[in-house]
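ENTRY TYPE: protein
CONTENTS: sequence, structure tokens:
***
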Amino acid sequence: MSPITDSSNSGLAVLASTTFLADIAQNVAGARTQVEALLPFGADPHSYQLTPQDVAKIADSDLLIINGAGFERFLDNALGATGGERTVVEASAGLKALTRGQAEKMEVDPHFWLDPNNVTVYVANIRDGLSQLDPGGAEKYQANAEAYIEQLHALDAWIIEQVSAIPVERRLLVTNHDSLGYFARRYGFTLIGTVVPGFSSDAAPSAQQMAALIDQIKASGAPAVFLDAAESSTLADQIASDAGVTVVTDLHIGSLTDGAPAGTYVDMMKYNVTQMVKALK
């Protein structure tokens, strides 16, 4: 079901931090409000550096939609320094985060969107933000949100069906960085380890950590290492070679593609799941 159409336009300048958030928000906004993505297709949000043009877009925005939970570190210094006034919607607000580490060094996993059920909360937060700034469009935003949530529930059911083709003992995930926790929890996967420690892709493993991961992969029987297409495969290739497994380098975790195969959030999730099923079943 597509967002309902509306000949009127809200006139709002709406900016989303990433391409997948822009697509989710556009499904709520429908024809009434255009949503622009700040980051370009294929950018790694963990290592992105803002350009002067990006700062200007933020300054001109009425509504900025972010994932939250520390995901957009590239915005840390920009929001206070940019001019203009805007409403900021934290799409993940209200969700309970996965964490790692101890209290003084606690890390929060921001990758909520890799479980479509979490995205229903994103939709509600985005709907409320749009409706607050554009009360005249509230009814349209509500209807669009309901229609899109139906798509998300259908996506969840589709993923469950696809994953059922993978034997339980092969539902093992090794990733470049710790990005698939919510996905694994929802769909019954076991996280064996990561090439890069932590929830960001811009850290670096020690030689001891790499050796330990190779041992974990061999002991578990995990058949593959999975990477986001935006991430360097150098370390993963080395680890996979030593462990005798394959590397899947073309998942799309933090960015959509410009057209196929991951041109929308729903298509991105379906593509990723299809690649996992191929590698694991």
In short: The beta strands are 14-16, 35-37, 63-66, 87-90, 99-100, 107-108, 172-175, 190-194, 224-228, 246-251.
